[in-house]
Amino acid sequence: MEAHDITFHEITMEDKRWMDEKFAEEGKNACEYTFANNFIWRKRYGVAVAEICGCLIVRSLGDDSFVYSYPVGEGDKKEAIVRLLALCQKAGQSLFLFPVLEAERRQLAEWFPGRFLIAECRDNFDYIYSREKLETLAGKKLHGKRNHIARFKDEGDWRYEPLTAENAEDCRQMTYTWIRMRSEKWNEEMNEEIEVLHEAFDHREELGLVGGVLYRGEEIVAFTMGEPLTEDTFVVHFEKAYPMLQGAYPMINQQFVQHACGAFDYVNREDDTGDEGLRKAKLSYYPEILLKKYSAAESTVVFADRGADADAVKKLWTACFDDTEADVAYYMEQRMTNENMLVIHAEGKIVSMASFLPVQYRIDGAYTDAYYVYAVGTLPEYRGRGYATQILEFAKAWYRAPLLLAPADEGLTDYYAQRGFKTAFLGEWHRQERVQEGASLRALELQPQEALTEEPVSPEEYVRIRDERLEKEGYVRWDAEAVRYAMGLNKRGGGETVAVVSGAPDGKERDVVMYYPQGECLCILETTLLPDKLERFLPVLFAKTGTKTAETAALPGMCWLPGHMKDCGSSMGYLGLTLA
Q: Rounded to an integer, what distance in angstroms lies between the CA atom of residue 256 and that of residue 161?
């Protein structure tokens, strides 16, 4: 089958039989894998289908081009993707696949290395619950749900019925009242959902949809509708209840599961579409599975896979930097994810890379998401081809957030300046000599209420103290995970990270210092101690480490800002702790 032989047609009810067979061949528990779900959304997304190499492919309209499902069924999936690539190439488009599940993500990385940018789509993760949990609501965590149901039942005069041809029209009419109750929050997406819901009512019996209806007196106050998804999972497509009626939502949820889902172990309640209120509500039921979904877009810049690409990344890293293989392995174990290292493949291997680690950047008095650019490197024999620049430019468009970095040497400052980075963190070195040999440390001791002592410090406390002491315009906030890694890396090099306690017993202050000895020099990687306190504490560290001089540094750094933020920021910010 060539690209020109592939023909998609608009999905119709006549496709139900063969599509059901393809879905059943795999038994995937994602909500997209039912005929009904694709059929009722057909008008909104222009859903079309085709069989390619024995696999079902569902095509829908995306923002700029078509979106294709990952091949479904027991056919030749790899060849089906090859045919889709050819089809898109002929049309002058890039292939975009969604949804891609975890096993499929690994398949793509293996079959087409360096071909697809695979990214998590958190807004589309499915919430899958144990049927027993939703039925019984047992346990302390779900105590609140039981209370809401109890309040609903307090009024009495309620009943539950299955959704039937007789009450379906009344449920349809109830949606219009529901719309009026939510008029202040109404938007286009909600309007589209109602249109799709009415498609489900129109074709309910043909689609095999099952539902339940909750009454207060003779008035419908909630209803739900779904269908079997796999042999052990039921999927709920719709659930509507009057928002101001306490307990209506948990009540219809529980009643429907009790009456209609007894043959299933799990209930898939679909995604949250990125709505924070809906996300909070679905998380409050504590799902057994938060089913990850990915998109896969054809691209020359892709994310490295920390499993399949591990050896290639290590070889590239050690070829570009002085880090030991053990330190590289430690970084990959602790900090690398499947979505924070961008790479380029050439001639069948990874030849260029850069990591982008999430931080918070204080700009115009508020924090914004930003990314610290780390370990930018290209194999020596592939340098001069613009690969690193290509990765940086891709990152600007992908993240659409400030990019921060600390040039490894002065010569790189011009390189980054030519690519739009500006000075944002001024560097400043301080050097201090040890007290003369034989001088008494007592001369530097403070009064008892001002004594300085050291104690262990956790990454979480380090973050808290660092934020309290160092926050200012242009400050970069690292989270506890980043600090934990930095502390571990420093310890591997013979260093320590401690809290420094000072002040009277009833008013103690805590600071932090991260340091390591290098020969006779004590390198202070970061500290929140003011200069006078650091001077008083150094003799303790000199004696402890056997060093004679100390160096502290505020690392110089640069920042690129997206267009809407180009006039923001300060050149006097504080970067401080990095992974260097």
A: 9
Complete DSSP assignment for 7-38: --EE--GGGHHHHHHHHHHHT--STT-SHHHH
Of all helices (H) and strands (E), which one includes residue 222? strand 219-228
Amino acid at site 244:
M
Beta strands in 310-458 (DSSP E): 341-346, 349-363, 366-378, 403-405, 422-425, 428-433, 453-456
pLDDT digits (tens, 9 = 90+) for 311-326: 999 999 999 998 888 9
pTM: 0.88
119's enclosing H/E stretch is strand 116-120
> Does the N-terminal peptide bond of residue 71 adopt cis geometry, omega within 30 degrees of 0?
no
Q: Please, what is the Cα angle at 191 between 186 and 196, to 5 degrees?
A: 150
First to last CA, the chain: 52
Write the pLDDT tens digit of every residue in 75-115.
999 999 999 999 999 999 999 999 999 999 999 999 999 99
Express each pLDDT in 251-292 by its tens digit: 999 999 999 999 999 999 999 999 999 999 999 999 999 999
| E strand map for 380-475 | 403-405, 422-425, 428-433, 453-456
Nearest to 5 by CA among 89, 73, 74, 83: 83
